[in-house]
Amino acid sequence: MGFLPLKTVSVADAASAVYDRWLGELAEQLSATDADWYRIARDTLRQLYAPGIADYEEYLADPAVPAAAKASLLALDPANVTLEPEYYADVDSERFARVKPLLWLWQRFDHSPAGGTNVHLGVRFRRLLAPHIFARCGKHFKCFQFTEVSFGYNLEVGDDVVVHRHVLLDDRGGITLGHRVSIADYANIYSHTHSIEDQRDVTAMRTVLEDDVRITYHATVLAGVRVGANGMVGACAVATRDVRPWHVNVGIPARSIAVKPNAPREALATLRSAHPPQGDHGA
After folding, report:
1. Buried b (16+ CB within 10 A) or exposed e, 136-167
2. Which of 126, 234, 248, 273 is the most exposed place for a label (fewest CB within 10 A)?
3. Where in the chain are the domains?
4. Would you tell me how many other CB atoms lie within 10 Å of the CB of residue 129?
5. H/E element holding 14?
6. How confident is the model at residue 1, as a pLDDT?
7. Do β-strands 192-194 and 202-204 pair in parallel, antiparallel, or remain unpaired?
């Protein structure tokens, strides 16, 4: 089967105009010098989840409103929720407090009627938020629904990166994604690990996926691993150690089984070290 380029898909003009207007307004609000990201997140989520409620405070003050309804509305405000990284001793509280409202907005948008599997709007929405959350975000970032980012501020993303559905990016110790990295559905990228002797003993290590790396379906990359340029981690594999450039690693733990056929000559020379003859215990 040959190359299958993506098709161009559009939505109705009326819907497209509304989406453009909303994203334009949101971009202006987030970029304002005096922007209150907590209030922006709260008001945006109120409009998405409870568009019939015009006045947030008035609704909460109404004694006739059931407590459960108030609790639901209160939870739309990131100031009224806690997120897992806030409980970690190594979190930079000031940096996390800054990105927290946008992480909450990202997560709740994905569960809203406007978000979820709405690719046309969802990719653009996440692309708008990402530069405000990540340490760095390159051009043309494309992220699908239900991706979870933990700390946010320790994530560096290059150009033309694609992250598919239900991916976990645990950037507690830092994650770097090079240009044109592709991470498939349900993959997990970690940057912290626990001691086998005492789970309270946590080690944070930056995980690096170099340019043109592909992480395939349900694969896991553990903390501190570097996947070399054009490397690939196969479906359901667990990368516990570095992956050589152009190598294809599969299994648990993941080991090299091949070098990509289009690899340069110098990469082919590393094939022997990945497959030592019997009795050779080299790396």
Report:
1. ebbeebebbbbbebbbbbbbbbbebbbbbebb
2. 273
3. 137-274
4. 24
5. helix 13-31
6. 63
7. antiparallel
CATH number of 137-274: 2.160.10.10
User: Can you tell me which residue has the tokens 């800054």?
Assistant: 98
Condensed to tens digits (0 to 9), the pLDDT of residues 194-207 reads: 999 999 999 999 99
Could you report the per-residue pLDDT of 37-67, keeping only the tens digit for each? Answer: 999 999 999 999 999 998 999 999 999 999 9
* Banded model confidence at residue 270, pLDDT cuts 50, 70, 90: confident
Closest CA to 143 of 121, 165, 158, 128: 165
Looking at residue 267, its pLDDT comes to 82
Closest CA to 256 of 230, 217, 279: 230
Q: Tokens representing 16? A: 């497209």
Distance CA 127, CA 112 (A): 17
Cα angle at 24 between 13 and 159, to 5 degrees? Answer: 100
